[in-house]
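# nightly structure sweep
# worker-07 picked up a monomer target from the shared queue
# config: single-sequence mode, recycle default, output format = structure tokens
# input follows
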Amino acid sequence: MKVFITGSSGLIGSELVTHFDRRAARVIGVDNNMRADFFGAEGDTMWNLDRLRQSTKRFSHYPLDIRNREGLSELFTREGPFDLIVHCAAQPSHDLAARRPFDDFDVNATGTLNVLEMTRQHSPDAVVVFMSTNKVYGDAPNELPLKELERRWDYARPEDYRGVTEAMRIDRSKHSIFGASKVAADVVTQEYGRYFGLKTHCLRGGCLTGPNHSGVELHGFLSYLVKTQLSGKMYRIYGYKGKQVRDNIHSFDVARAIEEIYANPRCGEVYNMGGGRENSCSILEAFDMVEELTGKKMHYEYLDQPRAGDHVCYISDLARFQQHYPKWSVTKSLEDVFRDMIAAWDVRLHE
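# output follows
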């Protein structure tokens, strides 16, 4: 088994490198540390690449930009064909996309097309998993009736209790420029499955998190929150009274989901992927949990202006994925997620 991973120094990419290094003959990763360009020194992922180089046996890294078609073609020719291709590389920030729209679209949409076309030309039998996002739904999830509770927003109707399904529309809503570029990437990935017959799968992630996240204010909700609290800095809440809700999934459980897909692939599929109802929390509830686990007070300020296209309450309904892959379930609880991130940031902040 030979695995190809883009964004291999990022949160999900690095988890996949570790996961498949124990299971595959070769793991090929590409990552040009564009996150440092996007977010500065705090977004730098070189520390994670160094960790992977020290801890893996079958991993080879290439500092390749996915916008480089010629470079990708040469790499696919030299190292392929691949059995599993997981495309994690992305520009992930709403706010940054508005400031750098060409970079955002070139990386998210065109970069995805490049990976898909190289797959069609050089590894047509590969199982392909694209890490999409729940932002492809734009702010349409905000149209679901909500109720305001003491520490969170929640769904008002019993039929919405499990969260947002894949039937949620992806157009006629405000996405942010980032969300729009990811819609393009998501749809073209589906089309390479439905039109060309590739074994493509889109995972529309909720809050993907874990100990190897280089969390920054513009991207990485829980990681940045934990980092801010441990370092005694100020956390800024944007709108919705701090009661906005996300469902959080540990990167380990994402890797397990992708392994299940590889074992039983489909064609042109779409799944919501997150922690589900049990792993959901609001910002205020996240403050409560991190304060309880660390014994430190959370310092924050409130801006009564939500980010454009942001979700008030988003919980991933995992029923469809679990129907297709009944062996999979979320194994890392919300407390597990917090404990892993607190331990990881405690080490990194004191290095």
